[in-house]
Amino acid sequence: MQPDTITPIAQRVTMRVLLVEDHQDIAASIYDFLEEQGYEMDAASDGITGLHLAVSNSYDVIILDLGLPGIDGVDLCRRLRDDARNPTPVLMLTARDSLHNKLEGFAAGADDYLVKPFALQELAARVKVLSERATRLFTKQLKVSDLTLDLDAHEVTRDGHHIDLNPMAFKLLTYFMQHPHRLIKREELEHAVWQDDPPDSDALRTHLSNLRNAVDKPFSQSLIHTVRGFGYRFTDQHADS
Question: Please, what CATH class does the domain formed by 15-137 belong to?
């Protein structure tokens, strides 16, 4: 049981989560906390069992430790994406806080990254965001504030005005709108657009400037915010910029 000081998330949801974590104390804490919030939980303590459960069942989110016996988290995630073609959102847990490890996890197909130690409230919030994001990924029309992007028609409108975007700007905007309101680091954005072959350091800045000129400059409210020293946030809410 968790201490009384832990505040449950505001709204309980019915969601199925797979937890793959070999550290018994950490696994028990996560399992108990999410179960108390109304989540249906499955758990595995090694990569082989975790992969079997992931491909044999349907989950809303998979919480995956990086260092696992049998198959490590990166290999498990890669097999899940490449071999099983499984799109379930993956939140990767690790004690390693280096940029290399994070990029390795994202390259394997992880959707989010949480470094140990972490607050259980933050974990629960990220799980909720990932489940909602998965729903948006299968939505053909994305909407943030008065900006709408139609994935099928490749059309963008804001406040009723049609916006013409080149393919790179459209790709950047799609990623932003699929991940609204959260901090997106520069490296993550580059990987989403160019995978493992990013161009020189000025390319992203140029494409973002073009995108801002199209979707922000003609309107009274900016949606693309630079969070200095960290990355970017796409939101109609307050952002530190």
Answer: alpha beta
pTM of structure? 0.54
Residues 6+ apart with CB under 8 A from 10: none
Q: What are phi and psi of 65, to 5 degrees?
A: -75, 145
Tens digit of each residue's pLDDT (9 = 90 or more) over 121-155: 999 999 988 887 765 555 578 889 999 998 888 89
Place of tokens 């008065």: 146
121-147: b (≥16 Cβ within 10 Å) or e: eebbebbbbbbebbeeeeeeebebeeb
Q: Which two tokens stand for residue 127?
A: 């799980």
CA–CA gap between residue 241 and residue 229 (Å, rounded): 10
CATH says 141-234 is which class? mainly alpha
CA distance 79 to 109: 9
Query: Residue 45's Cα: distance from chain center in Å?
Result: 23
